[in-house]
Amino acid sequence: MGNNISPVLEFDSEYQIQTTYAALSEKGTVLMEIQDTFWGAKYAKVKDIFGVIWDLNQK
Questions:
Q1: Nearest to 6 by CA among 34, 40, 48
Q2: Number of Cβ atoms within 10 Å of the Cβ of 30
Q3: Long-range contacts for 9-18 (Cβ within 8 Å, ≥24 apart)?
Q4: Is this structure's pTM higher than 0.70?
Q5: Are 31 and 53 within 8 A, CB to CB?
């Protein structure tokens, strides 16, 4: 039961992460807004309409 896994999506461009973030968060819940990270990427965490938590990472 619960969220035992969180799929990670890797993106090559800021456009890709922005559009995916917008689509998943439209009817979902933003757990972490897109932000710059200490490892030099943009990162976000979103729970979609079905309760799946997605990690979004743009290199």
A1: 48
A2: 13
A3: 9/54, 9/55, 9/56, 9/57, 10/57, 10/58, 10/59, 11/56, 11/57, 11/58, 11/59, 12/58, 12/59, 13/58, 14/42, 14/58, 16/58, 17/42, 17/44, 17/56, 17/57, 17/58
A4: yes
A5: yes
What tokens does 2 get?
A: 């619960």
List per-block mean pLDDT (blocks of 10 residues) for the chain, which spans 59 residues.
Answer: 82 96 96 95 95 94
Q: Parallel, antiparallel, or unpaired: how do β-strands 8-11 and 29-36 relate?
A: unpaired
Which amino acid is present at 47?
K
Interatomic CA distance for residues 23 and 39, integer angstroms:
25
